């Protein structure tokens, strides 16, 4: 059985991937569900365009280490927090830091 996060990621990425052209593909931020990260990695393995950046920080114990390990093997821009730690708040902090750096650079 698929999780709602997995179903949502597959549906969203299939729809989004029709609308963008590399290198302007969206950033994907995953802070909770390792099943969503695995779903995205499955689509990329099937030939779908990869995001311009994957922030992969799912948290927990079930499937987390495996999903992060799969991400680590992807030759694509990524920010990853290895181990069982992660979560939406840490993922949001990364995005906040990237935006702040971009603003300060200009």
Index terms:
single chain, 106 residues, mainly alpha, 4 helices
Question: Care to describe what's here?
Answer:
Helix 1 packs parallel to helix 2 and helix 2 packs parallel to helix 3 (64-72). The chain is mainly α and 106 residues long. It has helices at residues 4-17, 34-45, 64-72, 88-105; strands at residues 27-30, 53-56, 78-80. The protein has a three-stranded parallel β-sheet, with helices on both faces. Helix 2 links the parallel strand 1 and strand 2 (53-56).
* Share of helical residues: 40-55%
Structural class: mainly alpha
Beta strand %: 5-15%
Number of helices: 4
Task: Detail the poorly predicted runs.
Answer: none
Q: Give the helices and strands as they follow along the chain.
A: HEHEHEH
List the helices and strands and how they pair.
Blueprint: H1 4-17, E1 27-30, H2 34-45, E2 53-56, H3 64-72, E3 78-80, H4 88-105
Helix pairs in contact: 1-2, 2-3
Overview in brief:
The chain has helices at residues 4-17, 34-45, 64-72, 88-105; strands spanning 27-30, 53-56, 78-80. It has 106 residues and is mainly alpha-helical.
């Amino acid at each position: 059985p698929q999780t709602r996060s997995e179903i949502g990621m597959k549906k969203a990425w299939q729809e989004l991937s029709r609308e963008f052209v590399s290198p302007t593909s969206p950033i994907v931020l995953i802070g909770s569900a390792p099943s969503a990260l695995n779903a995205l990695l499955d689509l990329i393995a099937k030939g779908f365009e990869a995001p311009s950046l994957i922030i992969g920080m799912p948290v927990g114990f079930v499937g987390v280490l495996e999903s992060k390990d799969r991400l680590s093997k992807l030759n694509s821009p990524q920010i990853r927090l290895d181990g069982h730690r992660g979560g939406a708040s840490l993922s949001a902090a990364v995005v906040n830091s990237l935006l702040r750096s971009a603003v300060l650079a200009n």
